[in-house]
């Protein structure tokens, strides 16, 4: 009998029953008040008169009117640079314990996002809430006795001045609770290996000794790890070595482009649970099996605002115009893309995280990530978001029975005429002309703005295919393997020229 597993499962079920249904609106009001109260004596809080905002009858509107939007460059150059210069109490009391390094998907240069002890506590709290939510999923009691393999960046953080630096997945893994350490794999020694390929080799070597029930990480890197484990141990699929694998917790990017190739590595279906952990905090997680949408963590250390994702509010660099209106969680609507704005216990204020989302259930505060503000392909008015591109790729997979795990796009001029130039990661021989027509037909049917653009300046689609490994090599050459590294879905013409030069050399 799975005595321990039944005990844990029973405790989770009971805890879930005792937790009253949250009022996400009230949660957010409390979070904003806590943020303002805590930071009112910081340099940022004094400059933007948080004490006066706290006296208002409508904190949300007074806060929105009194503090501007910040992207990373703006808040870093104006405020966080003071932390780097040795000042304290700048945007949050005292100094951050960590900095999360993130190149995101748009450049080599690492952003340095402050991560405070309060944020670590917030991430832990969200993680516990996600574990409690597992009571909604039909998982056997034995699952709760199995190991959990977390594949992120190295936990061997770099000590600098009075803080530590690394990617958020490494920071989070280095702060796992004591009670969780018995479940955590690959363990402290392997997790500290900085070289991703070496770390994966060690995981493959040790895999047969572990009884893994769940894995967690970005889909592209998880796939490569699973392939290495399968190849090294000379088995047919991952269930041949981890027969009790029940759950994959995805995050960082939409899972749908990877679904077909991921499932090919399994011996049977497993539960896929989406999460939204960014360098800036634990934002959302899938709380129930009836949907693949994720519930915002409204009672943690993050206050959310939502700006309608409309071209008139978005600057070419992905930042917002100063007059772009923000909405609270009470004011949002379904089926509308929003730019996500966060203020957090790490001292980010009205911060443009760079993602766009839509609400699928407002009462439950459930969302889907629809793309990136910088990945919104609006050249010649086509107005394509990443979720529309993902849908188009899924349509190609279903139509031609192929696997497409990676892709990137540019609105490129050919002899003064615009085409959408697609590069698809496909390891099979395909008819690119048929792909181009199928993509074009699908997008015209699925997107009115694209259809209008095709009748005017946009002449069509050009498709190129390359081995999937080229995308991984590009990421390795420009950033670093593993961790939070993701492929940029949309490139400008200058970046695309560098990409095409790289492809030709492969």
UniProtKB/TrEMBL annotation:
<dbReference type="InterPro" id="IPR055378">
    <property type="entry name" value="GH3_C"/>
</dbReference>
<dbReference type="Pfam" id="PF03321">
    <property type="entry name" value="GH3"/>
</dbReference>
<dbReference type="Pfam" id="PF23571">
    <property type="entry name" value="GH3_M"/>
</dbReference>
<protein>
    <submittedName>
        <fullName>GH3 auxin-responsive promoter family protein</fullName>
    </submittedName>
</protein>
<feature type="domain" description="GH3 C-terminal">
    <location>
        <begin position="390"/>
        <end position="494"/>
    </location>
</feature>
<dbReference type="Pfam" id="PF23572">
    <property type="entry name" value="GH3_C"/>
</dbReference>
<dbReference type="InterPro" id="IPR004993">
    <property type="entry name" value="GH3"/>
</dbReference>
<dbReference type="InterPro" id="IPR055377">
    <property type="entry name" value="GH3_M"/>
</dbReference>
<feature type="domain" description="GH3 middle">
    <location>
        <begin position="297"/>
        <end position="364"/>
    </location>
</feature>
